[in-house]
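Input chain follows. Return structure tokens only.
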Amino acid sequence: MTAQTSRTSSLLEGLQNNAAQVLLGKPEPIRLTIVALLAGGHVLIEDAPGVGKTSLAKAMARSLDCAFTRLQFTPDMLPSDILGSSVFLPNLGEFEFRQGPIFTNVLLADEINRTTPRTQSALLEAMSEGQVSIEGRTWQLSSPFFVIATQNPFESEGTYALPENQLDRFMLCTGIGYPERATELEVLTSHRGGEAVDRLQPVLTVEQLEELRASVREVEVDASINEYMLDLVTATRNHEEIHVGVSTRGILTLYRAAQALALLEGREYVIPDDVKQLAIPVLAHRIVCRGLMREGQREHARRLIDQIVMQTAAPA
């Protein structure tokens, strides 16, 4: 193991351990969130209230030595509440632009499906291009810019389903689930002195994160792995139960996520298992199933992607 590889492993282990102090017994959501962070993507966390969605987002933000903003989405929120707006200064006789909460490094978009599609769309340009266009002017966002959005998929009253183009901007979609009984007992004990997330200290600087992101792009992906990913994506486009398959952006996202997972695992090359592990969280929210109401889409999509992975031959 080279000195650089050892340093990378140490940084990533510290990041995982820091977040694990808050989200006990749930290593997989933490790993997936770190994969998106390393790959320059964004994460959508879907689950029931109170299972730790917001805690995970806050733990990741506090683990990074950078700016963090939590934005609680509501039905009456306007795009200007996210992007910012111009304010008239009478003494100068001119307008001055006041930046909104999107000008940050880590944005927690809490309960994103509680605001209207018009307001949700204010995030599209920022999430895909790292910039926002306001009143005829383009503003670059700081790097890194990382969105962690949460939503409750089991609630319909007062919510607005995310459209496909918004879902496609999220690299990964994952859940958390209820903890095991022993873990939940540990949660009760650990919260005796207050919220564990409030005691977290940063373990990664912005400069270190940028170094890790550069390392992700150097992870080798064999031609056979590329063919395997194409086979998976093509299967979603030809499946009789899938109305809309995975786009080209989807396979590019899977490619980058696989590189990030390999780095997280301490490897300089991608293996088929990396692709298999990421297929559902990266691809399931990008497909549209035939003949199902939106409420049943996500779970059926996960089953179909799992079926496609099982039926598609992986390279040796």
